[in-house]
TrEMBL record:
Matching Pfam families: adh_short_C2
Protein name: NAD(P)-dependent dehydrogenase, short-chain alcohol dehydrogenase family
Transmembrane segments: none
A GO term, aspect molecular function: oxidoreductase activity
Family: Belongs to the short-chain dehydrogenases/reductases (SDR) family.
Source superkingdom: Bacteria
Amino acid sequence: MGELDNTVAVVTGAARGQGRSHAVALAEQGADIIAVDICADIDAIPYALATKADLDETVRLVHAAGRGAVPVIADVRDLAQLDGAVQAGIDALGEIDIVIANAGVVAIGDTETRSEPVFNTIVDTNLKGVWHTILATVPSIVRKGRGGSVVLISSSQGLTGKGGDGSAAMFAYAASKHGVLGLMRSAANAFAQHSIRVNSVHPSGVTTPMILNDFVVNRMMENPNPAVSQMLLPGVPLVEPQDVTEAVLWLVSPRARYVTGVALPVDAGHLVM
């Protein structure tokens, strides 16, 4: 028996990294998973994104946990595409109880100051994509009629301006992740009448391919920015996906049944300094 038995969860960016960690942990607690990912690279983003093979591995791990999984390829920037993907999952698994809006991109180390393609891609994915995820999923929770939980994955950069370097990439990342906080607060108010709780999680750097790739690592070595990664707790350069997942699990569980409208950092003290 798990805390999330007989529930259906949507996880965006589910093919690898935090998204896979969240999806598998939710399954281990009893949830069936609609696993959404773009499974393609984006021209303006300077590192490789997840693949269909990555998404298939997430599904394999969910099945290994004894739960159902529907893999759907969709770009969160495209509302019609996302609507169709989510509906395919609903058709297979039933109406939704839980939403983890996790899909996001970054371009740390891209120092170009006037790159509109970079700025627009980051904002469209990290902010508009979260809004699209809300639009595509919450009506299903309302139809089901027993309440639910929505967790928006933001960043410590959604609560601070530390690390700003004047680049289009960092301006877009901080602005988009701050915007997710506004979406969370607005949605918490909008959907409370349906007993839907909405919260956000704000990790500092996480050991995922979004950070641990050749482009970001090389640029950080060339131009170190201590404000991006400096933590209060010693010996924690980056947090692990599981650390973020533990916060997500608590927020969607009955243990947090009266918690809504909360911005929860998982940052080893990054925001204290």
